[in-house]
Design goal:
This protein has 438 residues and is mainly alpha-helical. The protein has one domain: MFS general substrate transporter like domains (Growth Hormone, Chain: A), CATH 1.20.1250. It has helices at residues 8-23, 30-34, 41-72, 75-86, 88-100, 105-128, 133-161, 171-199, 203-227, 241-253, 256-272, 274-277, 279-286, 290-314, 321-339, 345-373, 376-405, 410-430. α5 (88-100) packs parallel to α7. It is globular, with a radius of gyration of 21 Å.
Length: 438
Amino acid sequence: MNTPASAPKPVEAEAIASDAACDTEPKKSTLARVFHAFTYPEFRLLWFGAFTSSAGTWLQQAALTWIIYQLTNKPSYTGILEFAATAPVLLFTLFAGVLADRIDRRRILLVSQWIQLSCAMTLALLTFAKTPAMTLVWSAIALSFIAGCAQSFGGPAYQALIPTLVEKKDLPNAIALNSIQFHLARVVGPTISTIPFLIFADQLLAASVGFAFNGLTFLAVIFSLMTLRVGYIPQGKGDGMRVEMLEGLKFVWHQEALRSLTVLSFGATALGMQAMAFSAILAKDVFHTGQGGNAKLISISGAGSVVGALIVAGLSNVKNRGRWALIMQIAFGLTIITFTFAKSAWVAYSLIFLASIFMMFVFSMIASLVQLIVTDEMRGRVMSIYMLSFRGGAPLGALVTGFLADHYPLTKILMVEGALLSLLALGFLLSPSKVKEH
């Protein structure tokens, strides 16, 4: 067995050889390049199932953040909700990554989906029953935590499953298309979330309908997983959970590029995702556009992310991904700073659209670099470490931003976060880090 320090060399060589092979293939049309991973039936099946479920999740998030802020009128509760939903990543993701390298990843995902379905339906019933305000708020936070626990186990399994459905040369394209489904769902879900609020005058009734619909969407991905056939199923080595977890940590630690990518992904989510996490506050207190404006902010951000992912998918074999990711992160931070000066909602919509394009460049390129470096045997553990940094940044950033927003203007906080985001990328761009060489 290769040591963590020596393992990356043949993998990187294989990736270079794969890129060289791609250069010799016949030229495809732009459309064919963008959607090439859809030629794999198993990937296509999982994509559509995941898209349906993600749309429901975004629908619920838009409705829930609005209801929570309406009931409490305090940004800190929005921060607590975001933290509760994603903090389990900090607790369980490394353990989940070891599991994803030991047992069938589909089984982990199926359990995860059933738990999230149950949480959504329970929330729908509590809201429909008009549970007292603060009881409903804390129940929603508790259910978000339970669903987050399920997601923390499902995430590494899902990320490790995707590369087994396509050939390695098409992996960057598959990652970009997977990002499209997630962010396209950010357009569809929040847009649909406004419909119950237009039909029902009672906001709690409208929200309960949205939560129930989210619960039903999990059936789509459950069906996809039950019919999926994969080419690689992990076979646990029996070395013990602790030993395998340490092996994954050492694998990442001994590669400067992977270490740097985890830091960058943490910074990008902790500093770059807070405008969307606090969209309800921006809609109500800054732009005065109400629940419809909240949905528009989330949907337009999702549309920008889809455009960014489509561009990245069309450039699936672009060189110097690391350097481009750093440049795009600088642009991402500068756009957030500009967004905080917007006085008009429509100017803000344009800027959030542009910021989301830059954001998608950063996320897709970092994710593809991580996936290309790692092997199938280590993929679950390495992706769990990556997800710990990527998804762990958002709840910690939301918690800090929420409490600061109780005392300072939210736009000023976002401005500082945008500046720090750009400075982080600039530091890596000017440093001798190997990220720029990949």
